[in-house]
């Protein structure tokens, strides 16, 4: 039985003071929510405030990215996974579509970052997903296979067992569009089939695959009813305590 994971990605929003205020409202709303794991990934400057605010709760904190090795060095503006771990993080997002689109993240660097995160003891949420033109041209599964083979398949079975996969259709991120539960289920099933082919049926049955793409309180229930959807990677709706609690308490 896969425990759902409801993860919030704050992207480039909130100050430390706003982070503290968010948790003061959010934590009481999910205090009895034991049906799912919960994570929030704030900007780096808010991690300390988030860790402090979430102390004693079941809410894990994560980074939105990390460097691809744990050795310190002259790499201005980068943060090692070990630093995130030391700061109190449990999770880290790897290869988000915005990192791929704006900062030229590649499948190769996704794999390197994932391995470094695992080495530091973090749980990587490794993102895959297709652009609108790729879906409209019927290439969704081809794109996902390329991303999987280049960015995930290079893990050992032992490493793979410790990651989470997040499927995020790029055309549904922040657009208000959302894949129907049926479209999302079909795509999650295709990803699970890729896992089965590479790592075996047992690994495929165990891995959690999150859906990310305009998830809100009013559509999360339909998504979570599907057998291959194991949680959500939430953007905009994760910025408001009531909305994210509504997603968590689907």
Automatic annotation (TrEMBL):
The keyword Cell division does not apply. It comes from the Bacteria. InterPro entries: Aldolase_TIM (IPR013785), TIM_sf (IPR035990), TrioseP_Isoase_bac/euk (IPR022896), Triosephosphate_isomerase (IPR000652), Triosephosphate_isomerase_AS (IPR020861). It is an enzyme of class 5 (isomerase). One of its GO terms (cellular component) is cytosol. One of its GO terms (molecular function) is triose-phosphate isomerase activity. It holds the Pfam family TIM. It catalyses: D-glyceraldehyde 3-phosphate = dihydroxyacetone phosphate. Transmembrane segments: none annotated. It is found in: Cytoplasm. Pathway: Carbohydrate degradation; glycolysis; D-glyceraldehyde 3-phosphate from glycerone phosphate: step 1/1; Carbohydrate biosynthesis; gluconeogenesis. Substrate binds at residues 9-11, 174, 214, 235-236. GO terms for biological process: gluconeogenesis; glyceraldehyde-3-phosphate biosynthetic process; glycerol catabolic process; glycolytic process. The keyword Hydrolase does not apply. The active site is at 96 (electrophile), 168 (proton acceptor). Homodimer. Belongs to the triosephosphate isomerase family. This is Triosephosphate isomerase. The gene is tpiA.
């Amino acid at each position: 039985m896969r425990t759902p994971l409801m993860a919030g990605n704050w992207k480039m929003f909130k100050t430390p003071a706003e982070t503290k205020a968010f948790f003061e409202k959010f934590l009481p709303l999910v205090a009895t929510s034991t049906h799912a794991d919960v994570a929030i990934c704030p900007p780096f400057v808010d991690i300390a405030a988030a860790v402090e605010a979430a102390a004693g709760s079941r809410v894990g904190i994560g980074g939105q990215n990390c460097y691809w090795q744990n050795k310190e060095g002259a790499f201005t503006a980068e943060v090692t996974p070990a630093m995130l771990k030391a700061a109190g993080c449990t999770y880290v997002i790897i290869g988000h579509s915005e990192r791929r689109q704006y900062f030229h993240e590649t499948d190769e660097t996704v794999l390197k970052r994932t391995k470094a995160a695992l080495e530091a003891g973090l749980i990587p949420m490794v993102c895959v997903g297709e652009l609108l033109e790729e879906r409209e041209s019927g290439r969704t599964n081809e794109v996902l296979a390329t991303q999987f083979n280049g960015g995930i398949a290079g893990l050992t079975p032992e490493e793979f067992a410790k990651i989470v996969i997040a499927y995020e259709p790029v055309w549904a991120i922040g657009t208000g569009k959302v894949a129907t539960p049926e479209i999302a289920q079909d795509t999650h099933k295709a990803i699970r089939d890729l896992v089965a082919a590479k790592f075996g049926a047992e690994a495929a049955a165990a891995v959690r695959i999150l859906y990310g793409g305009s998830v809100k309180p009013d559509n999360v229930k339909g998504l979570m009813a599907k057998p291959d959807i194991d949680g959500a990677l939430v953007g905009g709706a994760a910025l408001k305590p009531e909305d994210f609690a509504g997603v968590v308490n689907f």
